[in-house]
# Entry
Amino acid sequence: MVKLPFSIKKSAAITVIGFLLILILMISCEDAEAETIIEAGTTYLSGHHSEGRVIMFNERFAGKYDIGVGIIGDQTCYNCGPVQVPDLPVSTNMVLQAQRIASWKPLEAGFGVAFWQNTNRALGSRFTFGLMLKVRAWRKLYVGGRHYSNGGSSSPNMGQDLVTLSWKF
# Structure
């Protein structure tokens, strides 16, 4: 049997499937104008590669609002900065996010909020802020990064970073 890079809990799987069904229903409405964006990549905790994988599904509405869900696979933290919190999990995590997007030629930037299923060694709270920066590499293929942080509102606040490739449909 093939081992996936994610160990999805039943509640997370139900949430993701429900979210995707809602998106499909919204897209099927005649008045809905949206782009589907799929992202995949790797994770970093506090700037250190953590060997985790990420897959995200986003819907862009009116060309300037992203709403999405992401699953971050199991991560390993090697020397993750000055703050070590060994009792917090670094296992599979899910994030729901909403961002305002600004585009200029091949660049896209975003700012918004995110809610995480669990805290981890990089994020001491489930509510975080999110930043995104992407550059178009070829047609509808983008290379970019995302950064999540709680803005110093709780500890630890080392940051969860994602480096991704994304494709727009």
Observations:
- The chain has one helix and eight strands.
- Strands lie at 34-45, 48-61, 65-72, 93-104, 107-116, 127-138, 141-149, 160-168.
- The chain has a mean pLDDT of 80.
- Residues 10-168 form a domain with the Porin fold (CATH 2.40.160.20).
